[in-house]
Amino acid sequence: MRRALILVLLLGGVRLVLPLGSGAEAPYALLTLGFLMLAAYTVAEIASTVKLPRVVGYLIAGIVFGPALANIVTVEASTTLAPVTSLAISLIAFLAGAELRWSEVRDRIGAIGKILFAELTLTFALLLGLLLALRPMLPFAGSGWSETFVFSLLFAAMAIVHSPAVTLAILSETGARGSLARTVLGTVLLSDIVVVVVFSATLSLAQALTPPAGFGAQITAGAVAWELLGAVVVGAALGAAVSLYLRFVHKELFLFALLVTFLGTEVARMLNVEVLLTLLTAGFVMENVSQRESGLALRHAMERAAAPVFVVFFALAGASMHFEEFLSLWPLVIPIVIVRAAGIRLGSAVGGWWAGMPRRESRNVWTGLVSQAGVAIGLATVVAEVYPARGAALRSLFLAVIAVNELIGPILFKRGLAAAGEIPGTPSESASAPAPAEAI
Amino acid sequence: MSSGLILVLLVASSFVAAHFAFERLGKRYLIVSGAEYLALGILLGPQVSGIFTPALLDSLAAFPALALGWMGAIVGMRFYLPELVRIPAFTYRIALTESLLTIAVVFALEAVAFMWLFDISLLLATPPALALAAIAVSSSRETYEIVSRHFGEGTFVTQLDVSTAVNAFVAVLTFGCLLAAFHMNPTGAARPLTATEWVVLTAAIGLIGGALFHLFLGGEANIDRLFVALAGALILVSGAAAYLGLSPLLAALFFGFMLVNTSRNRIEIAAALTRVERPLYFVLLIFAGATWQPSLRAWVAPVLLFVFARAAAKIGAARLSARAERSLPLLGADWGRALLGQGGIAVALGIDYLQQEHFAFTHVVFTAVVASVLLTDMSSARLARSVFASVPESDGAA
Question: Which of A14, A30, A35 is closest, CB to CB, to B62?
């Protein structure tokens, strides 16, 4: 309460200062960023008192003070702060990759593959069926059946994507390192690669069936292959370079961590390879090639940098949520969210059964797969670029769906981890906590 | 292979090579330097590889203000009153006299040089000359740390500690007043604000921000959460000052001063601030290198004058102030050499000046800072070693 009151005073102070300023964008963005961080911190504190994940607090702060409501963080300020978001995504990807040890991947890859196959297939099929059933209501529906089918295919291909950022943030907040946490992390990371392939294939099919009017970048199989394989090659080279630095220099790790993520992103963009996969691979190679202590030291340096970055990333994500679209499209959004969650739940249960996972784990895997964030928005933007008119309508609906999934996903995942007894300090933890050797 | 990738590889290998080279030089010749980061910035910047394009640097424009604020808060945190009152008053008098004499000498010389070289009025020459004077006052704590490791405690070490703190305070305050005095008034204000009002506003941002944050923080003990909240508060303070066209360094200095004297968590806050001090300094160096442009105007004379005038003023002012307080036997005649290192505050002030588009000679001032930082960083440890010899043995052992 005290913090909320001070926040109101600060808000008053900011309002007083604004008329005296020059109106320059960069300092204004900084001013609002500082306020947003304090606001996110305060709302996260309130959220944690009611057992909600802090991430949700950050998102709510972003919504409240973003363009949709208070408009302290304006659209222009969000644009100016885009490099922060970009850095955050790269940092998250590198950290996610560094969480994976080869021995663990080898042991879990079969189970993760089965869960992923069942979950993605079922969710995709259910969503496609739902969209076709709701055809008269769809904002992107065309005059003919085939056009509606094509855009529904695209929507379903985008909607199956998950959020590595939310997964990592929740794992970081809760300190969960058990079997469920590792399975969800592996599934989410692997799904990133699969989804890019599925999406690219679907977009190519869409372009063949419904050619874009006027223009539209043709996505070829070769380009997709390069985007993915190139990312693995570039990421591996970057990870090896990081390992060399750790072995021979091993200094200023905090600064080095920021430079690696920044340069990694720039290199990936220059070479037109998938940025997330590049950083993910780099983190994975660094963790598995470096001496364990060196890798750990860099990870700790990155985690130190990541704490404020997570706050900013999610608060800005909240600020860019499209609630006005939700308000106008909610009769469509709610069934889509429910069917997607049902597909994920059913699919992961089937996959878990197929892989012979313990019931306690397979029952809760779905909770970690509901969240959606940055990658999904990126895919929607690609569609809007290829199909400017109907793609934009599709994007609006999709952003409204993301807004809901982004809010409920972290809550579900935290509950899932608690139910599996993987959050340190929860009553059931002692019953199921893995031995230190298992927990990575 | 694309040219962009070749450039990245070139920059990366140059950086590693420079790092090794400076490490070897550092071990052999006692060089304490972040010069490789400055070199990295120049290599990455638009002048060489262009990996940091002007557009990219513009998009990162908010970052320097944050770094400046962070450094200002660290300076402010050094003024913890209950500890300061235990130090004898003559120590402060020496430090303050040395700072003011240095400012006066460097300002006078640089003002004359600018007026003569560029045929401009005193009014036009004042901002660059005063900025250089403020920058000249600041001195690195690197030498103090080396000397204190060598001597432990004693009058000389205490004097260095106080002098570096007072130097930083005077430098930041002078620079903050310069920005207030030559402020470009916004068009939206009901009436133009006076220089005094701008200075009061700068102090108010820091002091009120510090007081509110002290209440906001309460008894927060978790270092990660403390770090996030502190970063938010500092970004807010720095952003507010930068938005008003004031000095983020000065506003944050007041913020740090308020926090250290009111908060129960002052040790944790200081730890949270200092844990990124060094990386921030290096990032500022990289940014400085990337932003640096060889000045199109005749910069050689003002830059050389700055380097030599500063060295002479520092050593002379230190000797005079110690003599005035009859402390020469305790400090030694050349104790001012220990204040020659420039360090982070100088880079921060240089970048702050560079961002003031309405001031003249921004790149001349910035080039002077870069030259001085490089020179003094490389020689600061050797200077410290030379200082060891000049310190009276009786005090050194104290």
Answer: A30
